Amino acid sequence: MSSSIADPTLRAGDRRCPHPGAADVIGSTGLLEYPRSCVGLYSGYAMGCIQSISCKSKVFRESISVIEVKASIDPIPTSIDESSSVVLRYRTPHFRASAQVLVPPIPKKETWIVGWIQACSHMEFYNHYGEQGMSSWELPDLLDGKIQAISDSDGVNYPWYGNTTETCTIVGPTKKESKFNISMNDNFYPSVTWAVPVSESNVAKLTSIHRDQSFTTWLVATNTATNEMVTLQTIKWRMRLGIEVNPSRPLGHRAKLQEPSAQEQPQVLSKNEPIPPSALVKPNANDAQSHAIYFGNAFNITTCLGNA
Question: How far is CA 162 from CA 165, 166, 214, in A?
Fold first, then answer.
């Protein structure tokens, strides 16, 4: 078997290929005919170029480094606000993450974004109204096990958690390495009605609030042209909350914070976890959540009544 490569400097009968077993390799067509094994030697040069580009890309990816990463939850209890006669409000301590990142020089015209991506992997959020029943904020696909986690993006800059301090964009080519800090924070600040949600009565019936949510937060570098994604760091954290309410007491003296008074501190993992596809796309947790109401024989679900 042979392959033909045009070479205008050769005539029929000339020999050029040094490969053992090659005969008169210049045919009457004026094409340089190499045995198949010989063509492999020449095509190897082109393959080497492709591999070189691939290797350079790999070296660049592996050269993006995290100099320092910090993650914590403020060591303060959840605060409770009873100033409204319509709703109870509470504010949890903040989860905070920050990182110092070093990106090597970008040799060509391409753009990289480094930032935080967050997803919710578990949610329990129940508001109890004594014997009347309860209401619950739910993420149906997560609850049914259809997805591992749901995006906690700001709903605009998918898949990023935000687009201010949460990301940094580097536009190539650059001659020097880029060093920068990126940070994010998260907490809960919802309102829960004192009265039963489906009732026309304004009488306070709320007896307790239970909330338990788990999140995974990734530090990621992404090539905007190729969508190549490099996971640099993985953090896991959890926020738990219990509030006991005596609705018969005067406003301002009804609610009491139960344990935990202080949250577990986040875990910065030594080995990165993969990002589930559902954590990178719409909908985010706020848009996907449903408000389920369970009272007596009444059952109602309203999708996305607001932020929980």
Answer: 8, 5, 19
Task: Write the pLDDT tens digit of every residue in 109-143.
Answer: 999 999 999 999 999 999 999 999 999 999 988 98
Q: What percent of the chain has pLDDT over 70?
A: 77
End-to-end CA distance of the chain: 71
Residues in the chain: 308
Would you say 209 and 192 are in contact if contact means Cβ atoms under 8 Å apart?
Answer: yes
d(CA 157, CA 164): 10
**What gap in Å lies between CA 124 and CA 200, rounded to an integer?**
27
| Prediction pTM value | 0.78
Residue with tokens 């170029």: 49
Task: Write the pLDDT tens digit of every residue in 17-37.
Answer: 444 444 433 344 444 443 433
Q: What are the sequence ranges of the domains in the chain?
A: 1-63, 66-303
Alpha-carbon distance of 165 to 258, in angstroms, equals: 33
Burial of 254 (0-12, 13-18, 19+ CB in 10 A): buried
**What whole-number distance in Å separates Cα of residue 139 and Cα of residue 215?**
14
